[in-house]
Amino acid sequence: MWGTTLVLALKEIRRHLMRSFLTTLGIIIGVAAVITMVTLGKAATVDIEEQISALGSNVLIVFPVQNEQGIWRPFDDQDIVAVREQIAGVEAVAGSVSSDVTAIYNGQDWDTRVEGVSNEFMVARSVDIAEGRQFTAAEEAAGDNVCIIGQTILEELFVPGTSPLGEQIRLNKVSCRVVGVADSRGIGGGNQDDDNSVLMPIKNVQRRFVGNDNINNFAISYDTNVDSNAMIDAVVDLLRERRLLLEGQNNNFDVIDTAAINETVASTVGTLTAIVAAIAAISLVVGGVGIMNIMLVSVTERTREIGIRMAIGARASEVQRQFLTEAVVLCCFGGLVGILLAFGLSVAVSAAFTLPFIFDPFINFLSFAISALIGVVFGFFPARRASQLDPIEALRHE
Prior knowledge:
The protein is of the alpha+beta class. It has helices spanning 2-15, 17-23, 25-53, 77-86, 119-124, 137-142, 151-157, 202-210, 228-242, 258-280, 282-301, 303-311, 316-352, 361-387, 391-396; strands spanning 59-64, 90-105, 108-117, 129-132, 146-149, 168-171, 174-182, 197-201, 217-222, 253-257. It is built from 15 helices and ten strands. A six-stranded mixed barrel has the order 2-3-8-5-7-6.
């Protein structure tokens, strides 16, 4: 019985193909909009999380800020030593300095950034070496002219497929030997491309590029079992003491918790995605109203047909099932087309904004199920109305 009902529904829809397609446009647009918004929201969340993870996981980034008098006070090596020795739960702490430079190799030049770091910095910030090695203890202590280049430098200055290890590149007027290539680090603080950087021993950069012993910022990697808020409080108390800040004075430094940023961003993007998807879902309701409208028109057009079917023995439940099936088939068709449209839109938009494409089977299945439910809800009234027609009055209808 259900098979016959489905075949009859498909035949009726095919009789008015254009009208059926136009009727399902609301469902198509609604399903496509909801899936696309949710997919892009997830992609944006993953992209932001990857950018934040470039700073390292379970990491605090500490940097100086201006005080009320507009004075900017940098950190020094003793601040690093104090944090390492006086705060429990610290796994690694390392400072860094940076300067904009021009990298030159084999007649080509490229604007980049030199970062003065230590091996401990690479541990704190989760910087992996894709090729080559880190600095040796002797190179760090002496501030030798050795460097580790980022992926962007590798692509821009070196011939693809060749190894840069052992090659000499020049940063402004300073020559350095490449001993390693860093794995991709993505986008870091200030929306900077962390792959477009050259890492050198911090003493070398302080001496030859910035001209002082100041530290621009430092990273603290801490044990995952330590509460991040407790760690932040300990760091703030220690630095306030070292920087001789009195009670009531504002901090002349700031502390960023990458884990807290990650959670906040994920929550915010998730909320915005849900709101936008809910707004987009309104078109599903509009599509449902369109389905109900066209099914009422169909009942009116086929009143005589309904009368004949009921006169030769069709029951009211069978007539109701027939029209309800047509409404559900229309909505399911719209749902399938909407899913395909959403797939294409998601791929195109993700590529345009360089976001990762994330296929979510659950939201696709849920959208299809909702479209079928809309067919049931908005198709019930027309189907009920058709089943309650008086056969005699229906046969007289012209």
